[in-house]
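subagent[fold] <- orchestrator: predict structure for attached chain, return tokens only, no commentary.
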Amino acid sequence: MSTEYPILILRSCFHVGALNSRALELLHINRDTVGHYGAFAEVDETGAPNGVVKENVLDDIKAAIPSVGLRPLLEQVVQSQHDLLAEGLTSIQSDDFKYAPDEEPYALMDGLRELAERGALKLRFAEQALLTEPETLEEFFTRGGACFGGGDRFRISTVKLLADGSLGARTAFLREPYFDAPDTCGLPIYPEQAQLDRLVVTAHRHNMAVAIHAIGDGAAEMVLNAFQRARAELPWLHPRHGMVHCQILSEGQLRRMAELDVTAFVQPVFINGDMHIAPGRLGGNRLAHSYAWGDMERLGLHMAFGTDCPVERFHPLEGVYCAVTRRDFTGNGPFLPEQALTPYQALYAYTAGGAYASGEERIKGRIRSGLLADFLLVDRNLLTCPPEELLSARVLRTYVGGACVFRDPSF
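subagent[fold] -> orchestrator:
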């Protein structure tokens, strides 16, 4: 470590990090100020900050890090999309407002729209606008909200919120204490239900869907309460609200999701790591309806599969493998095998399910006359091959709008 340069080390989930002493000094986080951050900044036995910071504090820290600038950021978008196309991705949904240079997300949105309009975006890009305060959310709608679009390659699809943290960092908000840390239930991002309600009702009033990160059952309860209130206050509007991750749920919460028609944004690849930590974090009883994609399917929930990149790798076939086998990449498991999906169900959630979640199921998501010709060729039949082969399946060609945007050199 360095005493000269400020350093922030992030856990892989991006929900907890560690600062060195130089960073604490520059950020003015000390014995006198650390109390301002509450449970989001840890202290040692003397009451001094020990450098471990979580959730909201990380947002403040990231805002203090000098930006690389808008143009380099847009160049990275153009360059990196080729890696995604090579894995068969034709559309992505991403929340990028927090990565905007100088905290100016609208400049980033204008830049992405410009890329789309001049044909530099080969992927279809649906932005989930991360707006966590009432003032920034109102400004978003004042500026035109979902009108920040660029043809069929870039659009804003939802407002994004976060209700808790991650299971690995023990910041996912549970209704009861962690099994392996009985002194904590995790951390709700919004301590009061009314705070979350206000944001959801505001977006709902503008007929804008809200997708809310919720891993723990405590956070899920708050999210469902907020959606229920918005629908009760404005029942004539029907934006497609969604819950992102939906990992730890009760049977009753799953039924409420179905009753409220909440879309489940699910990342099956989480099985690869979480199957090794979830039993210890949760104990046996709470596991029964966790990572419950089979139950979601049986209840008729709309599921949209993704990867949560950069927390996990962006390879979709790895997610299909985990959804079907409920095993990690080395074959350990199965983990809650009664929640496994068929290959067809998993592929549907990755294609038609994603299109539904972004409100685009009438134009894409299936191979059908009249829909956008977004598809890929793979080296085997994903519906009939042995499930373990899903990990080694290769994308041979990727097409977006009928144009070949990736070709395996060997094919």
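orchestrator: received. Logging for downstream: The CA atoms of residues 124 and 394 lie 21 Å apart. The chain has two domains: 8-64, 70-357.
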